[in-house]
Specification:
The complex is a heterodimer of chains A (119) and B (112). Chain A has 119 residues and is mainly β. Chain A has no helices and 10 strands. Chain B has strands at residues 4-7, 10-13, 19-25, 31-38, 42-51, 54-57, 65-66, 76-78, 87-94, 102-103, 107-111. Classes of the chains: A mainly beta (119), B mainly beta (112). Chains A and B meet through strand 3, strand 4, strand 8 and strand 9 of A and strand 4, strand 5, strand 9 and strand 10 of B.
C-alpha cells in the first residue's frame, strides 16, 4: 500500500480498547470540522463532521469533541477493531476573507495520526 | 455505486512530457477539487471548482491546470511535469464546500 507519511504521530492500542486521536486546528474562524480515515492504498474516507456551534457529535462507535476555546478537536473510537487501523486526518474549513471576494471555503488538513490496533 | 474515479492509478513519466489525470464523479456534485499528498506535508489543495466553468487556485497551484467543461469531470493537467511534482494525487467531490468530500483512490505520479 501507499505510505502517506513517514513521520506521523502514532497511536497503538489493543483491540477492544477505546482510542482517542487529537488534533489542534489553526484558525479560530473555522466553522466546520471533519475527520477522515485513510487506509493504506486508498483515498481518505469521511468518518464524521461537526459544526462550530456544537461541541460534541456522535456516530456509530465514534464521537467527535470540539473545544473552541483551545482550538482542539478529538476523535474517540469505541471498542477499537483491527479494521480501524489507518491514518486519521482532521480537517478544518473556514470561509474566505470577505475582502478577497473569493468563494473557496478553504479545507485545511492536519498531518494525520497513524492508528495501529493490536489483536 | 457513488464514487469518484481517477485514472490512471499509477504513472511514471519523464520531465516535460505533458500529462492529464482524469477524475469523474457520478454523484452530481457541484464542488470538485484536487489535492496532492506528500510525506510530512499532508493533503494540500491544488485547484478547486465550484461548478461548470468555475475554477480557482488552491494552496499549491503552480505547474498545474484544470478544466471543468462538464459537471462530472475535472481533469488535472501537467503541461510540463517536473520531478517536484512526484506525489500522490487525489480528486474529491462534494455537494458544496461545507459538505463531506468523497475522494478517489488516488494517482501515484512519478516524474523522472
Amino acid at each position: 500500500g501507499e505510505s502517506v507519511g513517514l513521520h506521523l504521530p502514532t497511536l497503538s492500542v489493543q483491540e477492544g480498547d477505546n482510542s482517542i486521536i487529537n488534533c489542534a486546528y489553526s484558525n479560530s474562524a473555522s466553522d466546520y470540522f471533519i475527520w477522515y480515515k485513510q487506509e493504506s492504498g486508498k483515498g481518505p474516507q469521511f468518518i464524521i463532521d461537526i459544526r462550530s456551534n456544537m461541541d460534541k457529535r456522535q456516530g456509530q462507535r465514534v464521537t467527535v469533541l470540539l473545544n473552541k476555546t483551545v482550538k482542539h478537536l478529538s476523535l474517540q473510537i469505541a471498542a477499537t477493531q483491527p479494521g480501524d487501523s489507518a491514518v486519521y486526518f482532521c480537517a478544518e474549513k473556514y470561509p474566505p476573507p470577505l475582502v478577497s471576494g473569493g468563494s473557496n471555503y478553504k479545507l485545511t488538513f492536519g498531518k494525520g495520526t497513524l492508528l495501529t490496533v493490536n489483536p | 455505486e457513488a464514487q469518484v474515479t481517477q485514472n490512471p492509478r499509477y504513472l511514471i513519466t519523464v520531465t516535460g512530457k505533458k500529462l492529464t489525470v482524469t477524475c469523474s464523479q457520478n454523484m452530481n456534485h457541484e464542488y470538485m477539487s484536487w489535492y496532492r499528498q506528500d510525506p510530512g506535508l499532508g493533503l494540500r489543495q491544488i485547484y478547486y471548482s465550484m461548478n461548470v466553468e468555475v475554477t480557482d487556485k488552491g494552496d499549491v497551484p503552480e505547474g498545474y491546470k484544470v478544466s471543468r467543461k462538464e459537471k462530472r469531470n475535472f481533469p488535472l493537467i501537467l503541461e510540463s511535469p517536473s520531478p517536484n511534482q512526484t506525489s500522490l494525487y487525489f480528486c474529491a467531490s462534494s455537494l458544496s464546500p461545507t459538505r463531506e468530500a468523497f475522494f478517489g483512490q488516488g494517482t501515484r505520479l512519478t516524474v523522472v
